[in-house]
Write a structure and sequence with these properties.
The protein has helices spanning 2-7, 28-44, 54-60, 73-81; strands at residues 10-13, 16-23, 67-71, 91-95, 102-106. The protein is an alpha+beta fold. Strand 1 (10-13) and strand 2 form a beta hairpin.
């Protein structure tokens, strides 16, 4: 199943990208190297320093291969609603003008 998910990169319908296939990086050594490169880049740019996530890297050593498909529900709704723009189906977060609360409103 993991191999099948790796081969599926996108699922399309009528030229719409509905879903993307992905696989997770489960190689702890590779992930450590990427973190080290990111830390060097942050240091060179004088950005905030983060520490190496040792617990995460340790957990990766026992993590099995993992993959999945990210389905764009908003895009699926566009097809079902025959909408031309994604804004027609996305719920927008709108801040109330006189309050610190948020309301979810759909277009």
């Amino acid at each position: 199943m993991i191999q099948l998910l790796r081969t599926i990169r996108t699922i399309t319908s009528a030229d719409w990208n509905l879903a993307n296939g992905f696989s997770e990086l489960t190689d702890a050594n590779e992930q450590r190297q990427r973190f080290e490169e990111a830390l060097k880049l942050r240091s060179a740019k004088n950005w905030a320093r983060y520490f190496m996530p040792e617990k995460f890297l340790q957990a990766l050593q026992t993590m099995p291969e993992a993959a999945g498909i990210a389905l764009g529900i908003d895009r699926l709704l566009m097809i079902l609603a025959n909408a031309c723009q994604i804004d027609d189906v996305i719920a927008l977060l709108q801040r109330c003008s006189n309050s610190t609360t948020f309301n979810y409103l759909s277009h």
